[in-house]
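Quick note —
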Amino acid sequence: MLESVRSSSPLGAVSALVVGAVSALTLVSARVASEAKDLMYEVDDAPPAPVVIVPGARVHEGRPMRVLRSRLDIAVALMERGRVQAVLVSGDGAGTSGDEIEAMIAYLVEQGVNRERIVADPYGLDTYDTARRAVATYGVRQALITTQGFHLPRAVALCRRAGIDIAGVRAANDVRLRTRLRNLAREYVLSRPKAFLELRFPRDPAVETPPDDRLAEILAGLEHGAVAAPPSAS
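Predicted structure written out below.
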């Protein structure tokens, strides 16, 4: 009997470790998500804001892949509905899959968004940096942010803590099941624990640049009629 207890002890320890890890991840995820409670909308219900932030994602041969394209489509819809006046695209201008910024700008322009209404941040290297740089570099104080549902609570939480009066707008997540599961696993195992630490121990963005007044100029120009209005929804 003693041998049986001894032989089962390692298995019991591993089981306890797994249960503890899962519990910790669940609590961390819930804490991050609580920061975004009641601040997430579908596109038709989104409140108005001066600008929508579009976080970058993978591109292929200079074109947005499905995840990023869905985010950009929401930005286009918000512009067409008059819910926002400008778009801030924020991603990696030297990403491993290509220049996310140029791909996003080109796609938005193809969809009818006035290039003069788009502001580009090529140093939004992750969601935290996107949020912090939106405030520190581009002077964002109120905004919408659009991304997929699994990512949205974290994005809203980080923007809120950065000092933005923020609301999130869900983008479609029309990807293969395998990709969806991989994204969910990465979100809950890696990204939310990282965000949990970032919420408690804020850091400077990886790249800091001087303030950029382009967004303020766009909004001021709209107020005085110097920038063309967005196309009306058909």
